[in-house]
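User: Can you help me understand a structure? I only have the sequence.
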Amino acid sequence: MANKNILLAAFYSAHPKNHINTSVKGWMNDPNNIRYDEKVEITRGEKKNSVNAKIILDLSTKTVLRNRWGDNRNFDELFKYFFKGYHQYITTVMTQLDAEYFNRMLDEMQSELDKEKADEEVPAE
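Assistant: Let's start by predicting it. Here is the structure, written out as tokens:
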């Protein structure tokens, strides 16, 4: 039986930033010369192109299936990152999958935002 969990797959492509002279040897060695385009898909089960995804999150089981960026971010951290950019799609999916988890994450993100705002308002001495 095929896995029909709901997955979020993120694909990235690297391009030189504007005004970077790509004829200079070693231009790619400086990360400041590269920009990334991000494409995100939400699918039921893995698709053929999923082998090219840098990140795959299983929204049904709340697990990180793949993270090829080499960092050790957990599901909650990656979920928050993708929610910021793709909230309209993730809201639709997560309210149906696990509304309790989704509401808890919304509360967490709101408290983090409130804390950031409070830190900004503290006058520097």
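Now, to help you interpret it: DSSP finds two helices and four strands in the chain. The chain has a mean pLDDT of 90. Let me know which part you'd like to focus on.
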